[in-house]
Specification:
53% of the residues lie in helices and 0% in strands. It has three helices and no strands. It has 51 residues and is an all-alpha fold. The chain has one domain (2-42). It has helices at 2-9, 18-25, 32-42. Helix 1 packs across helix 3 (32-42). The N and C termini lie far apart (28 Å).
């Protein structure tokens, strides 16, 4: 779920590997658990409407 939320939040087509996500998450240290919560919640948001 965190990987999918990350991809959705940053508009990536492919999911990051766990190793990539750990490396990317270093910049959020010591707030990585908060970032993970937001990525989970991103999956609850509706998709953008196509115009």
């Amino acid at each position: 779920g965190v990987r999918k939320g990350f991809a959705k939040t940053f508009g990536r087509r492919k999911l990051p590997t766990p190793k990539q996500l750990m490396k990317l998450g270093e910049k959020w240290r010591p707030h990585r658990s908060v970032a993970a919560w937001y990525f989970w919640r991103a999956l609850d948001q509706p998709e953008k409407l196509q115009s």
